[in-house]
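> call design_seq(struct)
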């Protein structure tokens, strides 16, 4: 499970402007115990147990109780087995987050595993994650800690031991009170274009692992769930993740500053549920807090996490940081991580490569920062762009996935930082939440996308930027609309094809599960999609990723009915979802999905009488028995428009021009094909009745040609055509040419009763063999009602 890392120290640094305090919680460590440049908690070690080894909560509590007693012996079965040879004062299970759970979060965990209870939370190994302990040892010098690590590593029950690394903030000043109304990052990533499809949803959870979030901020409060937020800093209120700086609040504003509320900024999501996960108290925290936040996020099912910070290797190069790696790897959601601000190549720089963003894991997106030049171009943020001459965005052709806007980003901050509640910051800390916001935006629209598919959509949807070529995996900058489009393509690639020729499908769904179908009709038409079966289903129809219809259009009981007009040569996606999402009452069952086109036939022998309301539409299908011109007549008491289509292609239209004003138009229809007449009720009149009829334009008398060319003085548009009969005077290949001058023509040529040629255009010619005495018939039609002009016909061997 673990890919061995190069020995390293990991020191967390905020990747933005903002916090500069070095105060640390007194419970666990304090500012006086942190040596400059060392970045670890003296006397604290993180210990990962081997697979198959698990220590219960009761055993850990018992061990701690004996160690805390001044009179009791410190001998315990953990001392005799797990910690043999090391003087351990206390132990804590970092994968046990039961202390952070309440009724709401337990129910969320139970929705993923129906057997989950507080006892299970405390005494069952975490799925996909070994048990990781935080221990305090008696001797806290660096040499004593190194010796203890070596002893613990020899124990067959222990997989690894390593120091507990401190997250020390790295302040990168911009003008902390600089305000601007130019949200250039939001514009650059094409968020407004994405908002045409979705503006987000409160059903999507995004965890902000940071300094906390000011949940009282007027531009954030409606998008923050305080009941899910937690403070993982030891010694502080578990349930109060208030920001004591500004960093986390700034990050949250970019992800989900409330949209369309008439104040402040707007985030990538207008609506979202931000979960504050406070892992740095007064700007400091350790790897242990990160591990607990990841375990909590996995347990309650947060699909997207933002980590605008990093650890790197300086200070303790002897350590393999397997705990962080495994904690991230075991998280099933998508972790968006800042790439770092040290101008380092994360592929190769031993000391300043940023972690966890540089881990080679499928559930991480590492984000570098771009800046905007005066001419509008973007490039990697370099020295001076973040405010200090030596700071620049990290990069890496293999370890950094993409870039996003990261300089002079305006967002929310607590009012004790800036009285307005807003100011600008710079850094990869500011770039990462743009990406996390887009991930949430996609999840709001396609919640069924897997973590791998979500990452794929974001990476494949970037805008390629020449200046970023070779600096990241994609060579591009985040594009919200492009990512949504790619998500739609991913849905299409994993969907089942449904068509008028393959109109039914069957499947089995559980509550919340989704099946996708693709539909690409050849003709314009109205189609219904219905389900029958034993499971409750919900249907949604999408075009270019945008919801255009759902089962709210009709349907009863446990099934749905959707009716909608579909355009030809256009791909639609139908989502069928198990509608009952309650974890206790959701059912699994079979369903049958049916697609059926809705239309009315009419012909030369019939007249259709119908009624339309204002804004409604109907489709009528006419089958032509022979090629020629046909006049379509509509008599109506309501203002209507009629449009004629063949194979999805628009041919011609008529318009009543007002109430009680019928209309007619003449169109050329080919032989033995079905044509579609779309009748639309105009909005300026209420419902009314109408009739539809068709009449064939009489055929003209053929002009007989024998051994000569033919010509005409002209052909008028819309209902005008001529016929020539030609008898071959001897056998051979004849060249037939028709030139139409200014008029586009349709030419049909028959050898006896067989049509041997169809041509279209202003200059048409073809060669065909004719036997002596065979009759050869030529039809010449005006192609468009709006065109007329002279033509010339020539025939010769």
């Amino acid at each position: 499970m673990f890919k061995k890392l190069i020995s390293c120290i990991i020191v967390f640094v905020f990747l933005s402007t903002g916090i500069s305090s070095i105060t640390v919680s007194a419970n666990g460590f304090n500012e006086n115990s942190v040596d400059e440049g060392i970045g670890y908690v003296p006397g604290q070690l993180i210990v990962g147990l081997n697979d198959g080894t698990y220590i219960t909560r009761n055993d850990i509590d018992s061990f701690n109780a004996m160690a805390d007693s001044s009179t009791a012996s410190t001998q315990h079965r953990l001392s005799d087995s797990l910690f043999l040879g090391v003087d351990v004062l206390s132990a804590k299970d970092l994968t046990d987050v039961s202390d952070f759970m309440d009724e709401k979060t337990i129910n969320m965990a139970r929705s993923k595993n129906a057997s989950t209870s507080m006892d299970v939370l405390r005494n069952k190994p975490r799925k996909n994650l070994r048990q990781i302990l935080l221990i305090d040892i008696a001797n806290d010098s660096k040499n004593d800690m190194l010796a203890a690590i070596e002893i613990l590593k020899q124990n067959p029950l222990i997989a690894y031991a390593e120091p507990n690394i401190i997250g020390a903030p790295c302040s990168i000043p911009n003008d902390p009170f600089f305000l601007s109304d130019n949200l250039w990052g939001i514009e650059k990533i094409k968020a407004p274009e994405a908002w045409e499809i979705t503006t987000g949803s409160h059903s999507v959870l995004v965890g902000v692992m940071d300094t906390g979030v000011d949940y009282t901020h007027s531009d954030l409060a409606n998008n923050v769930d305080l009941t899910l937020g937690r403070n993982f800093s030891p010694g502080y209120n578990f349930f109060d993740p208030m920001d004591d700086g500004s960093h986390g609040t700034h990050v949250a504003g970019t992800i989900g500053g409330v949209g369309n509320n008439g104040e402040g900024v707007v985030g990538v999501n207008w609506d979202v549920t931000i979960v504050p996960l406070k892992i740095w108290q007064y700007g400091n925290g350790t790897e242990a807090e990160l591990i607990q936040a990841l375990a909590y996020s996995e347990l309650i099912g947060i699909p997207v996490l933002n980590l605008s910070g990093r650890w790197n290797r300086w200070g303790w190069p002897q350590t393999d940081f397997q705990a962080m790696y495994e904690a991230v790897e075991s998280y099933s959601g998508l972790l968006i991580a800042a790439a770092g601000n040290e101008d380092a190549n994360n592929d190769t720089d031993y000391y300043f490569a940023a972690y966890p963003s540089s881990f080679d894991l499928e559930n991480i997106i590492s984000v570098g920062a771009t800046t905007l030049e005066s001419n509008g171009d973007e490039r990697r943020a370099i020295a001076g762009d973040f405010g200090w001459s030596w700071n620049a965005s990290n990069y890496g052709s293999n370890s950094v996935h993409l870039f996003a806007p990261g300089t002079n980003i305006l967002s929310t901050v607590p009012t004790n930082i800036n009285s307005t509640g807003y100011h600008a910051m710079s850094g990869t800390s500011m770039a990462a939440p743009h990406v996390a916001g887009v991930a949430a935006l996609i999840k709001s629209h396609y919640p069924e996308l897997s973590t791998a598919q979500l990452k794929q959509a974001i990476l494949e949807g970037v805008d390629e930027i020449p200046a970023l070529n070779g600096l990241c995996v994609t060579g591009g900058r985040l594009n919200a609309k492009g990512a949504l489009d790619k998500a739609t393509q991913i849905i299409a690639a994993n969907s089942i094809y449904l068509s008028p020729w393959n109109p039914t499908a069957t499947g089995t769904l559980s509550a919340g599960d989704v099946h996708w179908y693709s539909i690409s009709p050849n003709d314009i038409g109205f189609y219904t999609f219905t389900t029958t079966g034993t499971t409750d289903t919900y249907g949604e129809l999408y075009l270019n990723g945008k919801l255009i219809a759902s089962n709210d259009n009709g349907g009863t009981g446990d099934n749905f009915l959707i009716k909608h007009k579909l355009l030809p040569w256009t791909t639609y996606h139908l989502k069928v979802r198990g509608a009952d999402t309650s974890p206790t009452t959701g059912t699994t069952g079979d369903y049958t999905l049916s697609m059926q086109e809705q239309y009315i036939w009419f012909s030369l022998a019939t007249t259709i009488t119908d009624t339309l309301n204002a804004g409604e539409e109907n489709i009528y299908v006419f089958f032509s028995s022979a090629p020629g011109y046909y006049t379509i007549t509509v008599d109506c008491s309501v203002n209507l428009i009629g449009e004629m289509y063949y194979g999805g292609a628009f041919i011609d239209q008529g318009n009543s021009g007002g109430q009680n004003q019928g209309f007619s138009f003449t169109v050329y229809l080919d032989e033995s094909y079905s044509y579609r007449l779309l009748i639309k009720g105009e909005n300026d009149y209420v419902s009314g009745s109408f009739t539809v009829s068709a009449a064939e334009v009489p055929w003209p008398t053929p002009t007989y040609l024998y051994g000569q060319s033919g010509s005409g003085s002209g052909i008028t548009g819309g209902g005008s055509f001529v016929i020539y009969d030609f008898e071959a005077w001897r056998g051979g290949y004849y060249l037939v040419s028709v030139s139409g001058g200014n008029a586009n023509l349709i030419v049909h040529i028959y050898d006896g009763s067989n049509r041997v040629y169809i041509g279209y255009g202003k200059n048409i010619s073809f060669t065909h063999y004719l036997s002596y005495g065979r009759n050869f018939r030529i039809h010449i039609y005006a192609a468009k009602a709006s065109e007329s002009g002279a033509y010339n016909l020539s025939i010769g061997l």
